[in-house]
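assembly run, all chains below
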Amino acid sequence: MTPEPIFSPFPPRRFEPATLLLFLCLAVVPIGRLAAESLLLSGAIVHTASGETLSAGQVLIKDGTIAAVGGTVAADGATVIDLKGLHLYPGLIALNTVLGIEEIEAVRATQDTTEVGEYTPDVESWIAVNPDSELIPVARANGIAYFEPVPHGGIVSGQSGLMCVDGWTVEQRTVRKPLALHLFWPSMSLDTTPKSEARDKSKWKSIEEQAKDRRAQVKATEDFFDEAKHYAKAKEAASKNGAPALEIIPAWEAMLPYARGELPIMIHAGEVRAIKAAVAWASTNRYKIILAGGRDAWMVADLLASNSIPVVYEDTYTLPVRDTESYDVHFRAPEILRQAGVRVVFSIGSSSFEAPSIRNLPYSAAQAAAFGLPEIEALKGITLYAAQIAGVSDRLGSIEPGKEATMFAADGNILDIRANVKRLWIVGKEASLESRHTRLYEKYKARPKESKQ
Amino acid sequence: MVIDGRGLHVTPGVIDCHSHTAILGSVNESSLPSTAMVRIHDVVNSETDTLYEQLAGGVTCVNLLHGSANPIGGQNCVIKLRDGESPEGLVFADAPPGIKFALGENVKQSYLTERLATRFPQTRMGVRTLMANRFTAAREYLREIEKARTTGVLPPRRDLELETIGEIIEGKRWIHCHSYRQDEILMLLRLMESFGVQVGTLQHVLEGYKVADEIARHGAGASTFSDWWAYKFEVYDAIPYNGSLMRDRGVLVSFNSDSSELARHLYTEAAKAVKYGGTPETEALKFVTFNPAKQLRIDSRVGSLEPGKDADFVIWSRSPIDSGTVCLQTWIEGKKYFDRSANTDKVAKLQQERTDLLAKAKKIAKLSGGDNAGSGEDEAAFFRAALEHEYDGRDRHCLEEQ
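ok done. output:
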């Protein structure tokens, strides 16, 4: 297959070179490259994700970086690792999760996902990731190398970063901060339950009252972003005119890169009216957005394509919501979006219940592939495209010279459930595939049979 | 009629041993710790779209269970997905009766506020006590009936709860028990053994791998999730190797959905037994066909493709264990209930009907607006509301039914 041009999911005109450079200096955290030995991964089917799939390729890793990829590359003194019969993939990237900021959904003390307040842009998810969460090695064992913990709570819930599944400390594990601001678009649907059937009659509202509330909530959100813009302008003006510096307000400081359109706003919306409203708002204000959730995105595929809005799609496994929808509508949605020209990344969702199941990320993509999405697009939707959306495609997301050597070898197609990950390298260093699950498996597999009670 | 199946795969229909689909209203009668008298049979919903959606995933037969709010829950109902039939027409009449039991966090009301969590039991200790008490009472009830029959004294007043538990003791009704931790699993097995009862299935049974020998020796089936874990404290030790480990130790294992959504791809869930623990593919397929049929004691009719059995079968584009497969046709008792090639037409017709109805509703809403009081304003309001209406999309399973 021919390599596709890699284009940014965001219109390039939005990047001011100067701010981009500044941003790169400040925000990209280098992962420690501790004298990793040179490796030559040899003989595997190499799924580069960016270019051709090599039927028996070689990948040379030096200092944690991919030095060469090809049918045969010069070993250059590297230790040869025979991967014959295995499939080599770039490490998977799980966007839109609550991995690391929650251990057990039902145990409140283990939750760090949800903050109080409607507008809390200065809340930062990457600082609260528990490196020793038992959930992370379980995800890692199926090839998940990076993940985005998303803060929840109000309408503007905070900012997410991109985390690595390996590293001693939370700082070592932080790959990029911030990745995006999270805006949970207010619900645009109305509850039509009659008052007589309402659970709490005191809280029941008429359609008209609800519509009014809905307008007010959207207006408040728009006002919040407008104020952030004004703060950014005032700050800029103050710095230019030598006027006294503005009083520092943390929430508005946090909003600066988003108000200026430098960093993306991830808008969480599923229902079609919410998506349309969000797109209209973003386009008017020239905000850079990513749509997360995207249940009904297929209905407005052209609108999303013409606005260059990528979708982090979390609804492959969602039942149809309207009785006129085909049973397979959410299996086919990624292909509908792709055909319209929308970039689709897969997520299994950032609900608390899903955190332990992040390892199943490839199967959301696989189901879309079974229902029409080309397999290479399904693979890109969990690797390269996710890296682009996360703003790290210069370092991650594919097996290409110059990128970080984060990849795994599986004994089959990773889009097939039967395949198992056999080895994993994070920035050139082999990582453990052990987890709470393998430990308990080994322990109880070894329980002597016929033990008496 | 000849179906050209060259290049395709045909399997028995998928059987889901744990579901709360197609049930009207709440799946829990949670007022009492023992609700053995209530029946899912009475609330089967034959009108729901989920029947078709699950047929489209190859599902033909489903064990509808009461929720997990009570140690002794309600009576189950096994149905076939004969979409278009009445509620009675869905019922799998030959399936032996069963009942839902539950243990652990749900029944001890761990997720209620302190003000509401006052019902006995509140601990795993109390769960055993409650069960032992109800079974003792049921045994006494049976004795009194027997005494009345043999001596002619007046029989006891009819008690629907004890009558049902009595059926369990007499081996006429099978327990399907929601369970997680190894200690509670053993508690149930030993308590039931003391009443001469064999447990039908342990449901979820996520720590079953720790006591697989004991489960096998008792003879209970294990109907588990493929890989769910860590959503509550009692499943922190759940591992996806559970199915394979239990099977290796001689337990009859199935994978269930507990979800109208997951049920639609239970066939790919079966592949997780291959992935985790290396269960052979043919055996993994049995986790969602033959084994649940055996667990529900309906294997003389369904669960495998054999002469004499019901013609419940599925045609797939690839092996159902292959993640790239698509279900093409689903048949029950020789009648086709799902055909992917006819789906496009079906959807187009529905959409046309919706478009027509919307046009009509909009017309009414427009005509009757404004100051035209008393001439259809209510009707107009109804249609305005209807036009805004959106299904909440909620997928119900027992974990949410607290």
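Chain B is about 35% helix and 15% strand.

The longest helix of chain B spans residues 124-151.

not gonna interpret more than that til we talk
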